[in-house]
């Protein structure tokens, strides 16, 4: 403990985070004499990290190892089985993709089962909130809708989704092939990377990368790409069914950052990724306001953390407290009575920290238990009663607060969220009712804006919290880039007050500002238009992909020619590796701001940054310097926009179709 205290006193909290609320809590932690430990402290304690692991040349796929490779040293340049550095690096990356894909796809399976149970009358606490979206999804996957009740249609959509998990026939996943361009279909078929079933593809990836199996790094990478497309499929299923069950997001105004935790209320944080739980918790809290008032509180205040917070923000306007790096800091406010978690990105350390406070940690998934927490076996059947039990546990905890430990930063910012693709198109339609997407593509082709950038990804302790997201956003906005965001990247922007009309005036370049103001004049949105458009949780990156596909079809080109880029400035999770891989396969220049474990093989590094472009049109940009990363992204957009204008002008001059092969 003495070493920990000394370590804390040496740390300047301004180097740890760009978020003033987080900085205040970290300063509070430092001044308390080292009583509390956070992820920042554990990251520092892990230094120096293993150089073999950082380069991706440590192999642990059999128990002869671990084998650590020194490429230029004879005898140590191969593992015990003979695997070289390029095989080991490729296998490790492929297994990251498999892990990320299993996370997203299991999420999608869960909500598909919830939709099925609802349709069969087994989950009465859920209902279809968006019948129009149900019909659109049914048509998209080829299900006839005439003469069918919503429940009947919901059952058929759920079964179609579940078929994409376990299909044994050699047919492509429906939620993949029916949501991409013809060019991408042909490319994936040509490269033999089209998945037929999500579960099978992930299992094949793991089998391919076990000891004594595939040693060809290119073949392993192609297997990882196939797995990433299974990830995309599960994500699309999850987003579509979320919208059907909980409503397709529409513009909403709310607030974000730790200041939304109100000491006068019973505060409950929902943390994780699955709105199947958190949406019911919100409903239960509304019904139990009276019980909270009976113990002296003003009511129950539900706030969100991480992606389930994004889901609630998008649909319900529920306050967003923080993103993944700040989950411990929410407990440290001393005013959080319960943290209810479901799956993914939940640090086991929240349990340890909750012991220092009165906060009740509640787990709800049989796949995500934490020793010492309160566990509720949550299922779609009987969901409301379970949710009420959890809320009542928080109300009971309120009476055990220690007022001397309550410290809530007075930091909270307005946020305009709720930008599903449908909501964006609704704004565009006020300018062009016939072809809404043409409003965006015309602005790019005229040079008013340079293109579109998708911000995604996590927080990573290797960088100060939120710094990458915020600095690159400001740089791209200044350079007239239209920005959409998901996950913890969107959470960072929300906390910083950058998802508001005021941020447009402060940070947008003249072209972007002119474009957004023209949209505002036509659409007259109730809350105005923000600098960046919050499209949802990390599983909702398929909303941005759908935008890409619509732009490609409108422009008459395939996706690698569209001025559209992606960036994950603070990537951390295996899910980010999976998303980044399918983004490259979809044809996007994809920036990653934290070096993945890939530098141990020049061959695999070259495949990711150069060869991928030749095959799929997309490629990775690995760049931790935020200014250099922003320049690389702007350069990629300008190059694509310039090339598109040149070829379109040439086609018009000679009266020929737009070239397909440039």
Distance between the termini: 62 Å
Low-pLDDT segments: 1-10
CATH topology of the largest domain: Rossmann fold
The level 1 CATH classification of the largest domain is Alpha Beta
In round numbers, the mean pLDDT is: 95
C-alpha Rg (nearest Å): 24 Å
Task: Give an overview in words.
With 662 residues, the protein is of the alpha/beta class. The protein is built from 27 helices and 16 strands. It has a six-stranded parallel β-sheet. It has a six-stranded parallel β-sheet with strand order 13-12-11-14-15-16, with helices on both faces. Helix 25 links the parallel strand 14 and strand 15 (589-592). The relative contact order is 0.12. The model is unreliable at 1-10 (pLDDT under 50).
Topology:
Blueprint: H1 2-9, H2 20-31, H3 39-45, H4 51-55, E1 58-59, E2 67-68, H5 85-119, H6 131-140, H7 150-166, H8 174-177, H9 182-190, H10 198-208, H11 217-246, E3 252-256, E4 266-272, H12 275-287, H13 289-294, E5 300-305, H14 306-316, E6 320-322, H15 327-332, E7 338-341, H16 349-354, E8 360-363, E9 374-375, H17 383-398, E10 413-417, H18 421-429, H19 437-445, E11 451-455, H20 467-478, E12 481-486, H21 487-495, H22 501-507, H23 510-523, E13 532-536, H24 541-555, E14 564-568, H25 574-585, E15 589-592, H26 602-616, E16 619-622, H27 626-654
Parallel strand pairs: 4-5, 4-7, 5-6, 7-8, 8-9, 11-12, 11-14, 12-13, 14-15, 15-16
Antiparallel strand pairs: 1-2, 3-10
Helix pairs in contact: 5-7, 5-10, 5-11, 5-25, 6-7, 6-11, 7-11, 10-11, 11-25, 12-17, 18-23, 19-24, 20-27
